[in-house]
Amino acid sequence: MATEQELQSLFNTLDSDQDGKLSVNDLLLSPGLNSVISSATSTSSPQALLAQYDSDEDGNITFEELKQAVERAGNLT
Ligand SMILES: [Ca+2]
Ligand SMILES: [Ca+2]
Questions:
Q1: Most buried one in 5, 16, 53, 75, CB count within 10 A?
Q2: Whole domain around residue 57: which residue ranges?
């Protein structure tokens, strides 16, 4: 379970190159945080997260896409 605020700070921490999007690379650089994302979105890997929730298929997860993923998994409070 996460609030939108917690999710935003998690997102910012994961976005290591600060471009406002999470690439597979950003996610792989922080295995610990990535496991938090995985459990919040019910996905098993960054690749699975992108395959299921990268709705505009640009190869990155924006905050909106992440929020939707967590919402759909029923973990946004
Ligand atoms: Ca990034
Ligand atoms: Ca995207």
A1: 53
A2: 4-72
Within a domain: residue 77?
Answer: no
Indicate the number of domains in the chain: 1
Ligand with an atom nearest the CA of residue 54 = 2
**CATH number of domain containing 18:** 1.10.238.10
- pLDDT tens-digit readout, 17-71: 999 999 999 999 999 999 999 999 999 999 999 999 999 999 999 999 999 999 9
**What separation in angstroms does the CA of 1 have from each of 7, 23, 42, 44, 73?**
10, 23, 11, 17, 10
Q: Which ligand does the CA of 51 lie closest to?
A: 2
Q: Are 1 and 75 in contact (CB under 8 A)?
A: yes
